[in-house]
Amino acid sequence: MAGAMVRISACALLLSTMVFAVMAAQPYPKHPVPNNKKSKCKVEKYEKCYDSEHVCPRNCPGGDCVVDCVSCKPICKCDLPGAVCQDPRFIGGDGITFYFHGKKDHDFCLVSDSNLHINARFIGRRNQNMMRDFTWVQSIGAIFDSHKLYIGALKTSTWDDSVDRLAVTVDGEPIELPLSAGAKWETNGVSIARSRNTNSITVEVEGNFKITANVVPITEEESRVHNYGITQEDCFAHLELGFKFYSLSKEVNGVLGQTYGQDYTSKVNMSAVMPVMGGTRKFLNSALFSTDCSVSRFGLGGIEPVTAGSEFAGLECGSSMEGRGIVCKK
């Protein structure tokens, strides 16, 4: 009984920390046009909500959302643990929101473990009034087993959501999917499927990880509000990402990966308007498919795997306050 009370108290403290951390992050910019993207509850056991369609909140980055089947309400994908969106805004495995700006035209280690290493290529523009770049994730390179997966956003000037701007390769071979939601390619436990007709895919490697990737532009409104200085020559198409891990070790590292570590404690200032994680040098890689960042764990044998995010496996999460809060419960 006493052990149960300790677990309940610990869970309550964890959840209150998660809610406070996300509330501290900057609110999403208002979009000038309504969001026409929709999502459904896909869990059959929630009979009252199953298969019901919901319009995504207009303030979701990229417009994408999922439906929380418990509350039967849509939630921005960028509000879920494992999300990497915007000027990179991360939701860690511990539920805490932070920003990692890195540096434009450089590659950084997002996740590094014994059998999984994921890097991200940052693109951006220099802000002359600040001491950093405005940055976004243009592509990712994932190394697992003996394979290499590339997901990237193609450079484009004028954005048209009906034109596919995704590039995907496995071991250097381009993966060409029909422009139809549900179109799928799979081999040896690796599957790649379109979530929509264009610019949205889900990649899953059995027993290892799942990635959702959407290509989105910087809109004129976002550029105006944040003073990005985006021109008609390049709308800085980039990836909005969601990660789910099935078998990370206790020693996992990387900008995002470390937040799933057993002994990890966040050092970001959660009371800041924009809580920023440092460590640019230790997460820097020499190339998109290199594993030479100083925190690399890739290829190190003898590391005991654990179920990633096991503390949160039974959590049901919902967002509120226009994307500024996450509430999770067992």
Explain this structure.
InterPro entries: Root_cap. Residues 1-24 form the signal peptide. This is Root cap. The protein is mainly β and 330 residues long. 10% of the residues lie in helices and 34% in strands. The chain has helices at residues 2-24, 220-226, 280-283; strands at residues 38-40, 53-55, 65-68, 73-76, 83-85, 89-91, 97-99, 106-113, 116-126, 133-144, 147-153, 166-170, 173-174, 184-187, 190-194, 200-205, 209-216, 238-245, 284-285, 316-320, 325-329. The strands form five sheets. The protein has an eight-stranded antiparallel sheet with strand order 7-6-5-18-17-16-15-14. A seven-stranded antiparallel sheet has the order 13-12-11-10-9-8-19. It has a two-stranded antiparallel ribbon with strand order 1-2. The two termini are 18 Å apart. 40% of the residues are buried. Residues 1-33 and 305-330 have low confidence and may be disordered.
